[in-house]
Amino acid sequence: MMMMWVSVAAWIGLALYFPIYSFGSYEANLSVAPFSPNWAQYSPFVSQAEYHVPSNCIVTQVNLLERHGARYPTSGSAAQIVSAIDKLTAVGSYTNERMQFLVNYTYDLGVADLLPFGAAQAYQSGETFFQRYSYIVDQDHIPFVRASGSDRVIKSAMNWTAGFSAASYHVYNPSLSVILSEDSNDTLDDNMCENAGNSDEETNAWLAVYAPTITARINDGAPGANISNADTYSLLSMCPFDSVAKEKRSPFCDMFEPADFEGFEYSGDLDKYYGTGYGQELGPVQGVGYVNELLARLTSSPVQDSTQTNHTLDSNPETFPLNRTIYADFSHDNQMIAIYAAMGLFPQSADLDPTSPDPNRSWLASRLVSFSATMMTEKLECAGEEHVRVLVNDAVQPLAFCGSGDGLCSLDAFVESQAYARNDGDGDWEKCF
C-alpha cells in the first residue's frame, strides 16, 4: 500500500478554510452543568479522577492520545436528523407542550466541523497539560504533536498547541509537526481494515428494545408525524449535538425523559464495543500500530510494526523522534476504542448483551471516548526503576495484565504484556484484506 502523509506546510497554506478559533474574544461555556452523563460518545470530557503522581515517583515521559473536541453531526447523521425533524415540523401542531418549540424551529447545525466549544475543549486541554507536566518541558523538549487528517482533528491539535503555549506565557510553542493522511497508513484512524465488520446488528437489536415506547410517546405528542424508531434515535442525538453547538441545554433534551437517555447511552456503548472494540473480531487489531509506536517511544527504540504504521515517517527522526518527553497525538473515538482493546484496557468478562444492559458494566462510551477524551501513558521513575501507568480521562487504569492491579507496571512488564501488538495482531491483520 502506498504510504502518504499531508505536508503541514501545505495544510497551513489552507488556513483560510481551516481556522483556529481565537480565544482573545471568545470564551466557551465549558461547564458540564447543562450536559448529561448519558450522551455516550457525544458527552463532553469530564475528568474521572483527581490527578496525582505516586509519592516515590516522578514522570519522565508522557504520551497523550486525545479525541477531537465537540463537533457538528457527520453528514450521514445530519441527514437522518433533518429527516426526523422534518416529519415533526410538518405536522404543525402538538399535543405535547414540550414540542411547542418546533412550531418556529429551523435546523441550523453544520456538518462534521469542530465547534467553538470543541476548540475550547482542546485549548483548555493544552493549558491543563502544560500546568501538569511543565517540569519535563524545556527548549530541547518541546511536545511533538501529530494529528490524523480530518479537519476537526487537525483544528483540535492546533488549538491544543495554542493552549499549551498560552499556559507557558508563550515560552514554549509546540507546533503540529505531522498530519497523517486518512487515505493511507494512519495509526490515528481506523481506515485500513477492509474486512472489519460493524455494530449495526447489535445496535439495531437494542433499538428494537428501548425505542418503541419512546417512539409511541413522540407520535402521541405529534399526531401524524409517523416517527420511526430510527427517527427516535436521531431526535435523541439532537439533545447532545444541539447542546454543545449552542452551549446550553437544547429544547430537544426536554422532549425526552432521563431514562430515555440511558437507552441512548447503551446504544453508544454497543456501537463502540462491536464496532472497533472487543466485540468486533477485527477491532483490536486496528489499534496495534499505535501501540507499537507507543512502545517505541517508551523504550527509545525503532518502531517494529507491520500493520498500520507509515514506515517512511516512523523511520525518520524528524517525523518520529524518540528523544522527546511529551508526545501528543489527536485521533477519533473509533480508533481510540481499537487502541484500548489492543492494549487490553477495560476488559469485559462477557460480551455486552444487545438486549439487556448490565448496570454495573465498566464499558461506558461516555467515560471512554467522550468529546476531547484523553488517554495518557506515562513513563515514571520510581525508586530508581522505570514504570508505566495509563490514565483514561485522568482515571488510573489498573493494568492487572502486567502488575499488581494498582496501576503501576515495570516498563519491562508493560512491554511484555503487549504481545498482541508486538506480534502484529497474532494473524488478525492479514484477515483485514
From TrEMBL:
PROSITE patterns: HIS_ACID_PHOSPHAT_1, HIS_ACID_PHOSPHAT_2. Gene3D superfamilies: Phosphoglycerate mutase-like (3.40.50.1240). Monomer. The active site is at H68, D333. One of its GO terms (molecular function) is inositol hexakisphosphate 3-phosphatase activity. It holds the Pfam family His_Phos_2. Keywords: Disulfide bond, Glycoprotein, Hydrolase, Secreted. InterPro entries: Acid_Pase_AS, His_Pase_clade-2, His_PPase_superfam, Histidine_acid_Pase_euk. One of its GO terms (cellular component) is extracellular region. This is Phytase A. The keyword Disulfide bond applies. It is found in: Secreted. It catalyses: 1D-myo-inositol 1,2-bisphosphate + H2O = 1D-myo-inositol 2-phosphate + phosphate; 1D-myo-inositol 1,2,5,6-tetrakisphosphate + H2O = 1D-myo-inositol 1,2,6-trisphosphate + phosphate; 1D-myo-inositol 1,2,6-trisphosphate + H2O = 1D-myo-inositol 1,2-bisphosphate + phosphate; 1D-myo-inositol 1,2,4,5,6-pentakisphosphate + H2O = 1D-myo-inositol 1,2,5,6-tetrakisphosphate + phosphate.
